[in-house]
C-alpha cells in the first residue's frame, strides 16, 4: 500500500537527474524572499486602495506579514532540494505540494474570517499566500532547475528522437 501511495505521488527515491546547484538554490531563495515580500507589499497597497476600509488592518503591517513570509519561503526553498532527491518528477510533486501548502495556509485566514475579520482584508491575505506560492515555486524551478539525466534506465531517462541523431 505504501508503494502504491509513493507511486501515486511520484516519490521513488531514485531520480536519474542531477540535483540543483547549491549556489542556484541560494540565489533562488534570496530572490524568492525578496519577490514574495515585494508581492505582499504590492498586494497590501492594492488591497487598501481598492478596499479603503482595510487601511490600518493589523495583518497588513510589514512587521506582521514580513516575518511569516520569510519563514514560509525559507521552508519552501529548503524543501525543493529534498523533493529533487526523492522524486523523478520533482516539478510535478513540488507544484502539488505548493498547492497543498497554500490551501493549508488559507485555513488560518478562514479562521480569522470566521472570527469576525473583515472579508475584504482576509481576501487580500489569501491572495498574499497565493502570490508567495507562485513567486517561490517559479523562481525555484526556473533558477535552480534539476540537471540532465545521469544515465541508467530509470523513469527520467529520455531517448532522443531521430531529429537529434543527425546532429
Please tell me about this protein's structure.
By secondary structure, the chain is mainly alpha-helical. The chain has one domain (20-146). Helix content is 69%, strand content 0%. The protein has 6 helices and no strands. The chain has helices at 2-8, 22-50, 62-86, 90-114, 119-143, 162-165. The protein is elongated and about 55 Å long. The protein starts with a helix and ends with a helix. The relative contact order is 0.21.
Question: How would you briefly describe this protein structure?
Answer:
With 167 residues, the chain is mostly helical. The protein contains six helices and no strands. 69% of the residues lie in helices and 0% in strands.
Counting structural domains, the number is 1
**How large a portion of the residues is in β-strands, by DSSP E?**
under 5%
For the sheet with most strands, the description reads: none
Give the topology string: H per helix, E per strand. HHHHHH
- Helical content, roughly? 55-70%
